[in-house]
């Protein structure tokens, strides 16, 4: 149990550092990846909904505290996404590359869209439709591409209690 806490904490800390220090410098067409989201999705996939929602809350709260938006918005969204991704793990987990990439794409799109909706509900003045085309869609594609690259290594790092076979074909 303590190994999982340390590896999860280290992964969230590393993802937060990457988000703050590296992500702005690797933007493609103005879109930056969401490293904490990739960690939350991967952890939820390999450990389940409780671990995913807990990591989502912690990662989201850290992003809220580092950002300029309303406190609690990212925490809420990441908690929900971590829980849902973990619930998927319990029902359809396969250790191939297609499912994690697909879930990363959908989770990223849903995360950004729900965060945008939370901002609108809270009364923050955001250009809704422009944000969908300029932020939500590009970030979803960017996160899916990074999931393809980082998921196997991140899953091995976060999975402390059982061996993972890499890139087994979906049956």
Q: Can you give me a brief rundown of this structure?
A:
The chain has 171 residues and is mainly α. It contains 6 helices and no strands.
What does this structure look like?
The chain has 171 residues and is mainly alpha-helical. The protein has a single domain (2-22, 29-158), classed as Orthogonal Bundle (Arp2/3 complex 21 kDa subunit ARPC3). Helices cover 74% and strands 0% of the residues. The chain contains six helices and no strands. It has helices at residues 2-21, 35-47, 49-66, 73-92, 98-121, 128-158. Helix 2 crosses helix 5 (98-121). The chain is globular, with a radius of gyration of 15 Å. Residues 164-171 have low confidence and may be disordered.
CATH second-level architecture: Orthogonal Bundle
Proportion of β residues? under 5%
Proportion of residues in helical segments: over 70%
> Termini separation (Å)?
32 Å
Label the structural class. Answer: mainly alpha
**Number of helices in the DSSP assignment:** 6
Shape: globular
What labels would you give this structure?
mainly alpha, disordered C terminus, Arp2/3 complex 21 kDa subunit ARPC3, globular, single chain, 6 helices
Helices and strands, with pairings:
Elements: H1 2-21, H2 35-47, H3 49-66, H4 73-92, H5 98-121, H6 128-158
